[in-house]
Amino acid sequence: MSQRQQLERLFEIDRQVRAGLFPNAESLARDLGVSRRVIFNDRRFLLERLHAPLATDRRRGGWYYTQPTWTLPNLQITRGELLAFFLSVELAQRYMGTDFQEPLASAAQKLSESLAGDITIDLETLRLHYTFVPPPLMSISAQTLLAIHQAIHEQRLMQIDYFANTTGARSRRVIEPYHLYNTKGDWYLLAFDRGRDDKRTFHVGRITAHTILPDRFVRRASISIEAWIRSSFGAEGGDEPVQVVVIFDAYQARWIRERRWHATAQLEEHNDGRLTLRLWTSGLGEVQRWVMQYGSHAEVLAPESLRLAVAEEARKMAGLYAAK
Fold first, then answer.
1. Are 266 and 277 contacting, i.e. CB atoms less than 8 angstroms apart?
2. What value, to the nearest 5°, has the Cα angle with vertex 185 and ends 47 and 200?
3. What's the number of CA atoms in the CB half-sphere (13 Å) around residue 39?
4. Suppose 286 and one of 10, 57, 139, 236 were both cysteines; which one would form an S-S bond, judging by CB atoms 3.0 to 4.6 Å apart?
5. Taking the model in full, what pTM does it have?
6. What are the per-10-residue average pLDDT scores of the chain (324 residues)?
7. What's the rounded Cα separation, in Å, for the pair 256 and 247?
8. How far, CA to CA in Å, does 293 sit from each of 135, 209, 277, 290?
9. Taking the mean position of all CA atoms in its chain, how far away is CA 167?
10. Which residues partner with 164 through β-bridges?
């Protein structure tokens, strides 16, 4: 496998370890579509070449960092390789099905091998041989991703023009960019907004203009990326996480138990086939939208504020249909 493919695996291993998911060779091999031997080779590379403080928690059955502040060292990759990494993530998570993941990633790699500097890749070539239906996600510029990466790496302030869907307002902000992460195929930027004096999550697709400023910033010790992501649900997070409890009927439980919905998720089986899901998160808005897609098959038990919000929205929906 190429160095770029290994880079992607190292990023994913580091992400899961840092998020407190306690991955192991078996789970990573399944998630990344490689053999356990490949994962063990990656682990050896992390330990011997990058000196990662990686250890095994026997009780949890997975890996963790004995020094939580350790980070991956700067990796020597070209701008073209970094763009190829972003593209491969886009292809793997945003556009293609499992069966096409490996051939499409390989095609993107071959297209980008000879490229350097500011580049663009026309993916129409791939569509001559593959047909796939992308999920309904926002289009983003890979060059914007590269600019954000540069600002994070150099710890430089960014000025961004941003459209906020929640308010419908456009604004110009000066931010301290901290972290890029991808969830459900969408790219998000975790940053500290100086104008609002608080941390914020920005959808990269809603950044309409950006400028890397000459001024540098010092990362705030009070901001933990790991805690930030761990307390979120999908892309949404807040301040203090609360326990969310949802019970699913026997029908919907078949699908719920197949997936891991959150790093803190715990499942409780019932004799009648029902399933209770418990997790800790601050992203209650996204939890509400997620639960409501299951209709009468899911019931929020806690927190009370979320239960009331779901009930109110359900009453509004019932009113819409009753009026027809």
1. yes
2. 85
3. 19
4. 236
5. 0.57
6. 68 89 92 89 90 92 90 61 57 46 54 42 43 60 85 94 88 94 82 92 92 95 84 76 95 92 92 95 91 96 96 93 74
7. 10
8. 17, 34, 16, 6
9. 23
10. 169
